[in-house]
């Protein structure tokens, strides 16, 4: 919508296409991650993994159709459950100490084309929360607190398992190249046996359900918003329609989930994450251009959030990298 205000229609159309494909590709990563977690523990084949993805998407669709409040409550509960397996792994490894030499090891050959997109993906997507801002009471302080909690929880779920995985004696001879999707299950098995591997798998499944349910909620509303802007003339009215009882964008959720599921089944995690970050970069550049455009075109527009510091501090941060 802000792009539509700031730039010509052709730029808005490009942004709509990029955002729509980004949403589909980004969403499709989570069924893939879930299936890889299950496959690591249960040794699933391609067909069985595909069934897991389809069932998983069906569950997330049902959660979303009920309403945004259900998604929000589920997300809070999931965040707490997600941290538990990693905390247990950390506590199990703590008496044996940490292998700081291995933790600080930097491989000679790094696949940058995979490494950078994966790292960027792990810390991207915070802006998607803005798609549900109309359904959040008192959003100004709520969003700031939520972003802070998300950053803390992200670090809490990344750092401890990396320390444990690098230090577990059973994984000393495992090269870092083998750290792939679902590897935390192997880390759990290394420090706590099969029972811990099961706990990690369950935690991963619950975490992915929460993430997928949340993303399906935000991206479906983004898709419905595109329909409101008549971005897809033939189906815009149908796409932007909300359910009378639950107040959810029913049609957008269904379309979103079908395309997401198809991409997840057809493509690998590495392919999806690389494509995801290309699209995300395009959307991010466009968003920054919109930000600058609105600053000049609408200088007196109400802006509820303000970056800490005086203008001089902002100028220093802006020009610092150069």
TrEMBL record:
Name of the protein: Amino acid permease
Pfam families: AA_permease_2
Keyword Calcium assigned: no
Source species, domain of life: Eukaryota
Family per similarity comment: Belongs to the amino acid-polyamine-organocation (APC) superfamily. Polyamine:cation symporter (PHS) (TC 2.A.3.12) family.
Signal sequence segment: none
Protein source organism: Trypanosoma rangeli SC58
Transmembrane stretches, start-end: 51-68, 74-92, 147-171, 191-216, 250-272, 278-296
Location relative to the cell: Cell membrane
Any one of the GO CC terms: plasma membrane
Membrane topology (UniProt): Multi-pass membrane protein
Keywords on record: Cell membrane, Membrane, Transmembrane, Transmembrane helix, Transport
GO molecular function, one term: polyamine transmembrane transporter activity
């Amino acid at each position: 919508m802000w792009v539509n205000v700031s730039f010509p229609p052709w730029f808005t159309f490009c942004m709509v296409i990029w955002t729509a494909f980004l949403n589909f590709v980004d969403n499709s990563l989570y069924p893939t991650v879930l299936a890889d977690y299950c496959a690591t523990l249960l040794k699933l084949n391609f067909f069985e993994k595909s069934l897991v993805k389809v069932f998983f998407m069906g569950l997330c669709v049902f959660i979303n159709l009920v309403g945004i409040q259900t998604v929000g409550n589920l997300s809070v509960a999931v965040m707490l459950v997600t941290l538990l397996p990693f905390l247990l792994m950390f506590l199990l490894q703590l008496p044996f100490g940490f292998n700081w030499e291995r933790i600080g090891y930097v491989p000679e050959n790094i696949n940058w084309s995979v490494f950078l997109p994966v790292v960027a993906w792990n810390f991207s997507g915070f802006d998607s929360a803005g798609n549900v801002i109309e359904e959040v009471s008192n959003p100004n302080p709520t969003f700031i607190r939520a972003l802070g909690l998300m950053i803390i929880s992200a670090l809490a779920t990344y750092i401890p398992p990396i320390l444990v995985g690098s230090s577990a004696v059973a994984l000393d001879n495992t090269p870092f190249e083998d750290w792939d999707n679902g590897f935390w299950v192997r880390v759990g098995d290394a420090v706590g046996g099969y029972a811990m591997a099961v706990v990690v798998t369950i935690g991963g499944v619950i975490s992915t359900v929460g993430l997928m349910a949340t993303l399906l909620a935000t991206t479906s509303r983004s898709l419905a918003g595109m329909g409101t802007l008549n971005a897809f003339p033939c189906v815009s009215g149908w796409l932007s329609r909300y359910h009378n009882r639950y107040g959810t964008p029913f049609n957008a959720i269904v379309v979103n989930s079908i395309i997401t599921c198809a991409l997840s089944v057809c493509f690998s995690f590495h392919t999806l994450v690389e494509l995801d970050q290309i699209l995300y970069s395009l959307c991010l550049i466009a968003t920054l251009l919109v930000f600058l455009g609105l600053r000049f075109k609408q200088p007196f527009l109400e802006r509820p959030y303000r970056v800490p510091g005086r203008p001089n501090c902002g100028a220093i941060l802006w020009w610092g990298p150069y």
